[in-house]
What we know:
Radius of gyration: 23 Å
Number of helices: 14
Structural class: alpha/beta
Helix content: 40-55%
Oligomer: single chain
Number of strands: 12
Shape: flat
Strand order of the largest sheet: 2-4-1-5-6-7
Low-confidence stretches: 26-38
Largest sheet: 6 strands, mixed
Amino acid sequence: MGFNCGIVGLPNVGKSTLFNALTATQAAEAANYPFCTIEPNIGRVAVPDERLDICANLAKSAKIVPTQLEFVDIAGLVRGASKGEGLGNQFLGHIREVEAIAHVLRCFEDGNITHVEGSIDPIRDAETIETELMIADMESLEKRVTSAQKKARNMDKESKAFLEVAEPALALLRDGKPARTLQVPAEQRAAFKSLTLLTAKPILYVCNVEESAAATGNAQSERVAAYAKERGAESVVVSAAIEAEVSMLEEADKQEFLETLGLKEAGLNRIIQAGYKLLDLVTFFTVGPKEARAWTVQGGSKAPQAAGVIHTDFEKGFIRAETIAYDDFVAGKGEQGAKEAGKMRLEGSEYVVHDGDIFHFRFNV
Length: 365
């Protein structure tokens, strides 16, 4: 599994259309009225990575297994969601369960599709949802902080540790800033994550533009790009309508169709690339005659942690990792050639995984 991402936004911005296209299903009903998505739809997609195909070809692998990305289509939030408006409490709970948020913003004009706010303004829409999430976080923290403060007066160690991260986060939220902007020391990051704050989640702004602007973006998507950059977030431009068309085509016809529109790749690829950058994820491979498989780990992970993604026993009994960099694997036309060129390394438990590494793990259980 790569990561799971909740697709959120106001009603009628193209969330379900995009979800259907990205997962190449019609699992989510796309309709021109709010709350057509009542339960979060979940879809998994293979993460496109040409390196995996090249490795499989060189190794003559019988099977190719890409890593996967999970999308959760969450029903449209509205102003007042933090107070329960529009089934808000239920949907806020769904957001709490995902690793990252893909916030779809409507950046196109279409008189046939109503907008819940009556006009097109993606920055206003972004701030509407951010405000609702901050209010929900603030209310959640206030209750917990009050309880912890009482316990801390009685020298409760757990409560004191909780307050060390909760109180600064609450102060930030009261100041109108999302929790993700808090500078958290490395030793407190696990405790901070355990607060499960909505606004602590990394956010990717997805600008849904008209078909003619899919390759270049438009004035509205440029505003969003600047807005995202100011906040240390990522943004990507897609046309949900085009993605829906692409999802219906045969694989052989997709690239030709995209090129006629001036696009080098589908929006899915750009969303995944932006998501991996946002979450600081890297991909490594295991390659052999039986299968070539891609795996995802957090940037900075060490070799035993990567082994543990495959199986917990691999991490527990880790001895060392036979490692070949992707470029060396390709240059050597496979594992044997890389070995003969002296490009296979034996790495120990302190080795930090690099994107594209090809591993054979040695372990003892």
